[in-house]
Amino acid sequence: MTATAAISVSTAVRPAGNGLFFPGLIGFFFVFRVCLIFLFFQSNAALGSQVSVATTLLLLFGAFLYTSDLSHSNTFRVVQIRPVRWILALLAFSCVSLTWTDASSLFGAFGYWLAMAADVAIVLLLLRRTPDPLPTTEAFFKGSVWAGAALSLIAWLTPRTPDLRLGNDTFLHPNTLGLYIATATLIAQYLIPHGVRWKWLAIGLAVTLLRTFSKTAIFAFIVAEAWYLLQSKQMSRATKLKIVAAALLALAAFWGVLNSYLTIYNNTASGDQAETLTGRTVVWSAALSMGLEKPWLGHGIFSFKALIPAFGTFEPVHAHNELLQQFFEYGLVGVTIAVGVYYSSYRMARSAPAGNLRMLALSLIIFSMLRGLTDTVSFGLSYPLWLVTAIAISLSRSNRFEAGAS
Predict the structure, then answer these.
(1) In this predicted structure, what is the pLDDT of residue 51?
(2) At 172, is the secondary structure helix, strand, or coil?
(3) Among 32, 82, 120, 152, which residue's Cα sits nearest to residue 337?
(4) Nearest to 149 by CA among 283, 27, 309, 57
(5) What angle do helix axes 356-371 and 215-231 make, rounded to 10 degrees?
């Protein structure tokens, strides 16, 4: 493809108006893809994963076209921002671990790594196209919130799990819903100054989060939200009290089904379900024991599911603890990198002037770190890498940080 042709396609990809439709679409896909297998590929989950990865790569190609006629580029400055550098270190090390991974499928492990790296690459490409990345970052935010709303709708329309929660135990787990919906709720709260619809979306998402009965996500969200309300100077005391009252009303509305869920939860056989604390400690013990076999570099990307045995009817796909998951797959090097991502993000947010983006960044860090105590994701971190990248770049640019001073 010639340069002229690429620019022509780029113009076609870029919509009329403010040019933020494509970043919004990206933000939507980053969240909505979690339900693709549930919606379309339950009979062939492997094909669903391949379609998800292929779509991510297609969007990466679209991002290249979208930015092909750049007259302004911040690429070299962007990669010097410390959280971004830690993320690039995580991607580089996880890629190198492909050479020693104990994954059951090297091709599958590479595909998941490729998708994870493509997420970050897309954000880097789109945020380098302007000296002010905040509008594009907020387009990511808006797309992700709409995707969270779509996930909520799907969850409400789906038959309940055997323990009465929203979601599907196999293809759209309530804890997965809890992660994505809680994150979308915090982002929707940030967007409230952009219009009243974001307030109603935040309320709807918060109600859905409660109904998932994802205990870790709900606890982490409550702590993050309490911190947000205490720190917020723009919200009146009356508004804060209304939020608390609404939360109590929602809890009262679901009290009957919550009581039934707790009865089922308390009667679950110990060790057979990771939903119980006993089940988690069994997974933690096994993961730590096997992780210590390769303490420095770990067993490699995508190795956890292949190596950890089933516990009764339960087959864990991750360690249910963020740092333990990193230790198992990437050893102490991986733990250091994960801590580096969180700590550098925290320092950058703490150093930023007071503002809504700073508040959002810190609340997401609080939520992700607390959730990471008893739950995690199979790839990346509970604080999505694309989201860390977008917020770090926006904080750096909007506050005129010097590269690397975060």
Answers:
(1) 97
(2) strand
(3) 82
(4) 27
(5) 150
Alpha-carbon distances, residue 224 vs 141, 193, 228 (angstroms): 18, 19, 6
Dihedral angle sign, alpha carbons of residues 91, 383, 74, 402: negative
| Amino acid 244: pLDDT | 85
Give the separation between CA 88 and CA 83, rounded to whole angstroms.
Answer: 9
**402 CB burial (10 A radius; 0-12, 13-18, 19+):** exposed
Residue with tokens 């780029």: 10
Percent helix, percent strand, percent coil in the chain, to nearest 5: 70, 0, 30
Degrees to nearest 5, angle at CA 258 with 256 and 262: 120
Task: Note the pLDDT of residue 13.
Answer: 44
Q: What are phi and psi of 79, to 5 degrees?
A: -75, -5
Q: What number of residues does the chain have? A: 406
Instruction: Give this prediction's pTM.
Output: 0.91
Q: d(Cα 376, Cα 382) in Å, to the nearest integer?
A: 6
Look up residue 192 and give its DSSP letter: G
Domain ranges of the chain: 3-398
Q: Which of 10, 26, 17, 13 is nearest to 389 (CA)?
A: 26
Mean pLDDT for the stretch of residues 96-116: 96
**Cβ distance 308 to 291 under 8 Å?**
no
CA distances 62 to 49, 114, 339, 391, Å, are 20, 16, 32, 22
- Which residue's entry shows tokens 């076999």? 293
Question: Which residues are CB-contacts of 273 (< 8 A; sequence separation ≥ 6)?
Answer: 279, 314
Torsion of CA 54, 55, 61, 64, to 10 degrees: -140
Min mean pLDDT across 48-52, 384-388, 399-403 is at 399-403
Per-residue pLDDT of 236-266, as tens digits, reads 788 888 888 988 898 899 999 988 888 887 7
Banded pLDDT at 3 (limits 50, 70, 90): very low
User: Given this model, what pLDDT does residue 262 score?
Assistant: 83
Dihedral (CA of 194, 196, 197, 202) sign: positive
